[in-house]
Structure formats: C-alpha cells, structure tokens
Specification:
11% strand, 257 residues, alpha/beta, Rossmann fold, 45% helix, six-stranded mixed sheet, 6 strands
C-alpha cells in the first residue's frame, strides 16, 4: 500500500496518553510514532490525528469520521469502544454494529481502514471487563475479515500483558508500550522498520521479599491506584463529565510531519 497521507481516529489510546513529549506540550503515542516510521519510507507523508481522550464510539463516529472522510487520506486508523466497555451497560454487540457502520462509511468514501482490537486487561478491577472486551474483539475480527481491513490484534501481543507496558493508571501505555504498538502496526502494513515489538522487557531488579510482604506491597499499590486513578474516574462518571470535554484534536489538519 502506497501511503502518502494518514489520519488517526479514536480516544486516549490514539491521542497518545501516557507518552509525553518531554518539554513539549501534549502526548506522542503510537500514532505519532507510526507516522514517523512511515515517513522514513515515504518522505512528505501528511498526517492528522483527530483522537481525543474520553471519547466514546458514538462521538468518534459523529465528530471524527466525517472529518476524516473530507480529508480523503490513503489510510485511516480506527481504535474506539474502550470507553464504552468501561461503563456499565456497554454492550459489545451494539458497539460492534456501530463500529461496522463506521468502517463501511470510511471504505465507501475510498479510505482504507486499519483496525485495532482491544487489549487483554489483566490488572485487578480492570479485568472485570475482560469478557466484554473479548466479545467485542470477536466482532472486530469478523468486521475486519468481512471488509478486508488490516487488523492490529493488541489482545494477541504478549508484551502488552506485562506491567512495564502500562502507566500508573493501568489504562494507558507507557512510551515503550506505544513504541511497540507502532512497530506492530508497521508489521501489519509491511512497513520496513528496524525494531521488534516482541523484544523482551529489560530484566527487573530482583526483590528479596517474603510472600506475605509481596502480597502486602501489591495491595498497597492497588489502594494507591484506587485513590489516585479509580476514584477520580468514578467521580467524573457521576458528574457526567469527561477528561476530553473541551479539548481539540492535537493534529486537526492533514499536514506534513
């Protein structure tokens, strides 16, 4: 596939949380990294990123898909639905119907679609939605097969099941987690790259501890996560607000890198 322009759609995963740009504002993320890798093979690549944290599937469909269609890019990435599944009542079957409609809209406009499955959630509490994510992923694989779309299967990436892939909030990838997703996207699209997303994580420093102490340390980590990340998330849900309210996309125009 000759890709001269790329538009990324979705939520915080594609916006790039938690992969900060260092001394610059905002986040980098897998999509920026993928665009940079793609630009090495295709100088002059134009890239837009319309993803905004907290967006649900219907918002991606209503706000981002029409803008992507108007840009008529050579490739559109679509990763959405996770925020719906995290909420009570998130129905994988209904979400799949909406997702399929988005894919058909993009394809009918001549925009090839790169799809993403959901992750395999393994952390305490988060893993309560594992069944819903698995069901949604089955639909996504069927959609990709039905419409002949390329698919990045995040569920099947073993490196993303390990703690070093995840930031403290257990919802967003670390910088190296994003880098590995970008490498996997390149592999799916047969874009030549030097790195390998399968590379093992650096060995952690050995910790000498009794089983009881290890258990207590893990529970303290869980409590800290609940206080710093889970409780604010629940509060926002009760108030009906999102971290993405009022935020504009970080790259709203299709421009060269």
């Amino acid at each position: 596939m000759d890709i001269g322009s790329f538009v990324a759609l979705g939520d915080s995963f594609t916006e790039g949380l938690d992969d900060p740009r260092g001394d610059q504002q905002g986040y980098r993320g897998w999509a920026d990294r993928f665009a940079e890798m793609l630009a090495e093979q295709r100088p002059g690549l134009r890239y837009a990123n319309l993803a905004v944290r907290g967006k649900k599937l219907a918002q991606v469909a209503g706000e981002q898909v029409p803008r992507a269609v108007a840009m008529a890019p050579d490739l559109v990435s679509l990763a959405a639905g996770g925020n719906d599944l995290l909420r009570p009542g998130g129905d994988p079957d209904a979400l799949a119907d909406s997702y399929d409609e988005m894919v058909r809209t993009l394809l009918s406009a001549g925009c090839p679609v790169l799809m993403f499955t959901g992750f395999d959630p393994r952390f305490p509490v988060i893993r309560l939605i594992r069944g819903k994510v698995a069901a949604f992923n089955m639909h996504l694989r069927a959609i990709a097969d039905r419409h002949h779309c390329q698919l990045v299967d995040l569920w099947s990436m073993p490196v993303l099941r390990d703690p070093p892939a995840w930031s403290a909030d257990r919802l967003h990838l670390t910088p190296d987690g994003h880098r590995r997703v970008a490498l996997r996207a390149c592999e799916v699209l047969r874009v030549p790259v030097a790195g390998d997303w399968r590379e093992p994580w650096p060995a952690a420093e050995p910790v000498v501890s009794s089983q009881a102490r290890a258990w207590l340390a893990a529970r303290r980590t869980d409590l800290r996560w609940a206080r710093m990340h889970a409780a604010p998330w629940v509060t926002r849900r009760l108030r009906g607000v999102s971290t993405g309210d009022g935020l504009a996309p970080k790259r709203p125009e299709l421009l060269p890198l």
